[in-house]
Amino acid sequence: MPNGQYRVAVKDSAAEHSGAVEEFRAERGRTVVFESRADAEATAERLSTPDARVAVQAAAPQDGSDADAYLVPDPDRRTRDPDGSVDAGLTFDVSATQYGRLGEALVCCQRWDPPVLAYYAREDLAADDVRVELDRDPDAVVTDDGARWVPDCRAVARTGNGRTLAEYWCEIKTGDASLERDQRTAMTWQAQRARVLTVRVDPSALPESYTARIRAVGPVDGSTNASRVTHRLSDFK
Fold first, then answer.
1. Under 8 Å CB-to-CB from 153, ≥6 apart: which residues?
2. How far apart are the first and last CA of the chain?
3. 45, part of any domain
4. Residues 176/213, Cβ–Cβ less than 8 Å
5. How far, in Å, CA of 153 to CA of 30, rounded?
6. Rounded to two decimals, what is the model's pTM?
7. Closest by CA position to 48, among listed 72, 27, 30, 29
8. Whole-angstrom Cα distance, residue 97 to residue 95?
């Protein structure tokens, strides 16, 4: 994505779902260029009504167009107005943001030796004497061309005597959530300098277990090797 250009394709489904979006597309075209994702999301919020909400969704990795994202209908979910009552219990739907953060919470559950990344580091480094320290607030990665990625965490693997063996810069996704183009570009750029991982968390077996699929990002054409780690509730006792 060129610096200052975030391209959003306005989907037919969004125009059919919302008269405001239909008018917006007629005025601005089927692909609209924004300054940033935040700018696009602000426009989606402005176009939304209580009966016809729309949202910005990252473009699929296999999408051959030049769009960074899509404007799509946002299903009416009980994220703010629950079913039930205070006395009987309140039932909320899980929002997209909450669902996305669920995987991050599972992987980044503890500062020292978080199970998924500690297991991966021991396998990757072929060493048992490894301790992993987690940085949950790493610096953003910005390429020379302005592509930007904010990693979810940075894991530092050390020997028992404190010698650093490796650093892993991680992007954590829940389910099949896709990477944005800016993220992929910056991750590939960063992979020339450090180990970069995508961690996809499958939470469908919660509360008993969850599965993390880890893929190392190559410095040229993306992913190289992959592994799978399943953790159960007993791993945290």
1. 104, 107, 108, 117, 134, 135, 136, 138, 170, 172
2. 45
3. yes
4. no
5. 36
6. 0.67
7. 72
8. 5
Task: Judge whether 84 and 23 are in contact, CB under 8 Å.
Answer: no
Judged against a pLDDT cut of 80, whether residue 225 lies above it is answered with: no
Domain, as residue range, for 30: 6-73
- The DSSP output letter for 112 is B
Q: Quick one: 69 and 100 in the same domain?
A: no
Rounded distance between C-alpha atoms, residue 233 and residue 237, angstroms: 8
Q: Is residue 81 included in any domain, yes or no?
A: no
Residue 50 lies in a domain: yes
Query: Both tokens of residue 44?
Result: 């989606």
Q: Would you state the structure tokens that stand for residue 226, as one six-digit string? A: 């992959």
pLDDT score for 78 = 59
Overall number of domains in the chain: 2
Do residue 110 and residue 208 come from a single domain?
A: yes
∠78-83-87 over CA atoms, to 5°? 135
Q: Which residues contact 97 (CB under 8 A, 6 or more apart)?
A: none
Burial of 10 (0-12, 13-18, 19+ CB in 10 A): buried
- 105 and 68 in a single domain? The answer is no
Which two tokens mark 117?
A: 């990344």
**Cα 180 from Cα 217, distance rounded (Å):** 14
Average pLDDT, the chain: 86
Q: Are residues 61 and 144 in the same domain?
A: no
